[in-house]
Amino acid sequence: MTRIYISAGEPSADAHAAAVATALRRRLGGGLELEALGGPSLERAGVRVLDRMEAYSVVGFVEALAKIPAHYRLLNRIKKSFSEKRYDLVILVDYPGYHLRAAAAAAAAGIPVLYYIAPQMWAWGPKRVRKLAPVNRLAVILPFEEAFFRERGVAATFVGHPLKDRPAPPPRAEARRLLGLDPARQTLGLFPGSRAQEVRRHWAIFREAAGRVAAARPDVQIIAAGAAASGAVYPDPGPIRVHQGDPLLVFAASDAGICKSGTTTLEAAIADVPMVITYRVHPISSYIAFRLIRVPWVGLVNLVAGYEVAPEFLQRRATPGALADGVLPLLDVDHPTTQRQREGLRLVRDRLGAPGAADRVADLAAELIR
């Protein structure tokens, strides 16, 4: 019997971890037992979820303070499991604040560690790479990360981005039909985030920006990718339709988007949706972040491309007027700004690698438990 512990502390990591769990079963066959910190995606993949991620997921330095006691209680329980040699391998997915400590605990117990989706130390902490010393293999999903970590002594492998494994979306007109929209009308997509905390900070700004777009372009229909499962609410949506379902349909339906920074920008790139990028966190979190950050952009599309493909409006610059003015030209397919951005999005798609990321992670896992 091979026993593997998988740890995923927030929704996107849960989805990526579930794909790895499925690939592990294909790769290793019978006699495999999987246990986890995770959520519904891992449960649907047949993994025994010992602790639910919803109790721990948070964004921002200040926001994380309230979760510290719960994380330490969890870590103490996991340390006990590791010391009892319950597992042959530990797979950690994203979520570095907790997982760097979990990696150290696993290594201290003599359990090999595979870390999938690297901490973004290239952005905020090159000197912290030493904290990855307990990790046996690091599976990275951004093309520039392999060289960054290898140059600093970490055994990193670029496995491609898991977003490339998603099924192809329907054509725009069909996606609009499925969403109950007019298939012939141009569509603006709003992507304020997948966590209630993100939506709470972004919704009023997105809503007002959408109102300005509607005033300037009454022919444009507007739809937001909702996140009901996280408990997010969308008060006073006005003409905005909030879709509480698969966000991939909203990307597929959109001619342009207002996107919160992070993986959302890569999802838009894969769907060929020109965008403006924005993000807001607690002012103290922002103060800390902007003093730690070591890269010229926060949007992943810009980092992957190596130049500013999409404009970024962060913190105080994240105003409804700026977002509306930025996205309005992108609704015109022939506008030079739209054409330039689409060239950059094509470059990003190419650089994200071939499909099969989860299978390549499973291959790395098999090497560690031989």
Question: What is the element layout, followed by pairings?
Answer:
Blueprint: E1 2-8, H1 11-28, E2 32-38, H2 40-44, E3 48-52, H3 61-64, H4 68-83, E4 89-93, H5 96-108, E5 113-116, H6 121-124, E6 137-140, H7 145-150, E7 156-158, H8 172-178, E8 187-191, H9 196-216, E9 221-225, E10 241-243, H10 247-253, E11 256-260, H11 263-270, E12 275-279, H12 283-292, H13 300-305, E13 312-314, H14 320-327, H15 336-351, H16 357-368
Parallel strand pairs: 1-2, 1-4, 2-3, 4-5, 5-6, 6-7, 8-9, 8-11, 9-10, 11-12, 12-13
Helix pairs in contact: 1-16, 4-5, 8-10, 9-14
What is the gist of this entry?
By secondary structure, this protein is an alpha/beta fold. The protein contains 16 helices and 13 strands. The chain has helices spanning 11-28, 40-44, 61-64, 68-83, 96-108, 121-124, 145-150, 172-178, 196-216, 247-253, 263-270, 283-292, 300-305, 320-327, 336-351, 357-368; strands at residues 2-8, 32-38, 48-52, 89-93, 113-116, 137-140, 156-158, 187-191, 221-225, 241-243, 256-260, 275-279, 312-314.
